[in-house]
User: Which sequence fits this backbone?
């Protein structure tokens, strides 16, 4: 049930955490991925990394990349309100801002339910991010992303619910998120000021972007809470009552940077205050 990449074969006997959570790994409820950022497809660790999970707010990483690309290609003329929404979508993980940004990317609008003749073209527009990914990110397998929707504090309504019923929920894999994180940092086509903005929005260093819009600490019980002293990192986390994920670009003070993804699903795993730290420490141990 695990997609262990041959370059780094892991067995449950290599680390205590595999004994403690063996059933969860085998059930596909924990996904891990680790690679050098300069070669994100060459895994150091890959467990359930090509399996897709409901991503919660990790979709915002992809919407950020799509937004920057469309601005650079002059497909979207961004104003101050657009940039305010992008900032809050990423740094504060605002769901309202995400809905605004996604509608800008797709040229759609949120609102009441639509009749079938009205809904069909609306649905096609909502496939804009999927089409962008297929064209601009061919290194990411289309089997590992399914992105049509915004995120919501409670639930979608109206045409957004109609779209969810027809298209299913958003889905992402740990590998796809690691690849996107590496692409954002290493894409030579990204304008310098856009790279600077990306780093600022994703930074979790020196207290930056520590708390989400609803007050969740995005560091202590996530990857940042278990990184060694002196490490610097940039990340996007996502969580609900049923999932808890994070993808990070990490520099540990050596000459290499790394991308890592930790995905967990199921209420018991989400509520385990130590699990994310233990998984992070395992991945760091594979680097060191």
Assistant:
């Amino acid at each position: 049930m695990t997609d262990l990449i041959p370059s780094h074969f892991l067995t449950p006997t290599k680390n205590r955490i595999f004994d403690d959570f063996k059933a969860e790994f085998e059930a596909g409820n924990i996904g891990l991925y680790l690679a050098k950022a300069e070669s994100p497809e060459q895994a150091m660790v890959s467990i359930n990394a090509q399996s897709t999970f409901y991503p919660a707010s990790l979709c915002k990483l992809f919407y950020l990349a799509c937004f920057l690309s469309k601005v650079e290609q002059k497909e979207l003329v961004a104003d101050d309100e657009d940039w305010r929404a992008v900032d809050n979508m990423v740094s504060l993980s605002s769901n309202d801002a995400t809905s605004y940004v996604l509608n800008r990317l797709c040229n759609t609008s949120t609102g009441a339910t639509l009749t079938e003749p009205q809904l069909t073209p609306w649905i096609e527009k909502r496939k804009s991010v999927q089409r962008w990914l297929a064209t601009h990110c061919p290194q990411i397998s289309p089997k590992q992303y399914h992105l049509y929707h915004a995120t919501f504090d409670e639930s979608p309504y109206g045409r957004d619910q109609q779209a969810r019923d027809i298209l299913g929920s958003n889905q992402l894999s740990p590998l796809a998120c690691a690849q996107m994180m590496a692409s954002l940092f290493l894409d030579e086509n990204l304008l310098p000021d856009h790279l600077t903005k990306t780093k600022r929005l994703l930074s979790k260093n020196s207290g930056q972007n520590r708390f989400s819009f609803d007050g969740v600490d995005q560091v202590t019980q996530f990857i940042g809470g278990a990184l060694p002293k002196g490490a610097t990192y940039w990340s996007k986390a996502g969580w609900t009552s049923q999932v808890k994920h994070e993808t990070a670009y990490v520099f540990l003070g050596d000459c290499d940077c790394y991308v890592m993804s930790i995905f967990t699903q199921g209420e018991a795993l989400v509520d385990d205050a130590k699990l994310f730290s233990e998984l992070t420490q395992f991945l760091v141990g594979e680097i060191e």
Observations:
- The beta strands are 30-36, 43-47, 145-146, 171-172, 232-239, 243-251, 257-265.
- Residues 29-286 form a domain with the Beta-lactamase fold (CATH 3.40.710.10).
